[in-house]
């Protein structure tokens, strides 16, 4: 299952945006307002939203100034969430989120709508940076 968020433009240099994403504590400010738990532990963080199990994301990959990829710590729900970062100009950067999960058809049907809303919320909050 793939979910592509909208591309948002931020009035900040690409390097600053990349640095923001590499500090996992900053993801708390991107989360939906109703977040119930958020804890950073080294190269991972755990978060909880109402009606969903807590999820731990681990920093899987980073390509300087262009990509940050987080992945599920649990192999039970294998997925990645990538932020693609593109320089538009010296002080303007585009960011797009991509969710890629390997779920069975039943699970995909159940979680597609809430996950799409989650990615949309993250994207919307990135646009406010």
Give the tags:
alpha+beta; seven-stranded antiparallel sheet; 24% helix; 43% strand
Please tell me about this protein's structure:
The protein has 129 residues and is α+β, with helices and mostly antiparallel strands. The protein has helices at residues 14-22, 105-126; strands at 2-10, 37-41, 44-48, 55-63, 67-72, 79-89, 92-101. Strands 1-7-6-5-4-3-2 form a 7-stranded antiparallel β-sheet, with helices on one face.
Helix content: 10-25%
Distance between the termini: 28 Å
How does the major sheet shape up? 7 strands, antiparallel
Tell me the fraction of residues in β-strands, as a range.
35-45%
Shape: globular
User: Largest sheet, order of strands side by side?
Assistant: 1-7-6-5-4-3-2
Q: What's the order of the H and E elements?
A: EHEEEEEEH
Q: If you compute it from the alpha carbons, what radius of gyration comes out, rounded to the nearest whole angstrom? A: 14 Å
Total strand segments: 7
Helix/strand-derived class? alpha+beta
Mean pLDDT: 95
Task: Name the quaternary structure.
Answer: single chain
Low-confidence stretches: none
By DSSP (H or I, 4+ residues per run), the number of helices equals 2
What are the SSEs and their pairings?
Layout: E1 2-10, H1 14-22, E2 37-41, E3 44-48, E4 55-63, E5 67-72, E6 79-89, E7 92-101, H2 105-126
Antiparallel strand pairs: 1-7, 2-3, 3-4, 4-5, 5-6, 6-7
Could you give a short description of this structure?
By secondary structure, this protein is α+β, with helices and mostly antiparallel strands. It has two helices and seven strands.
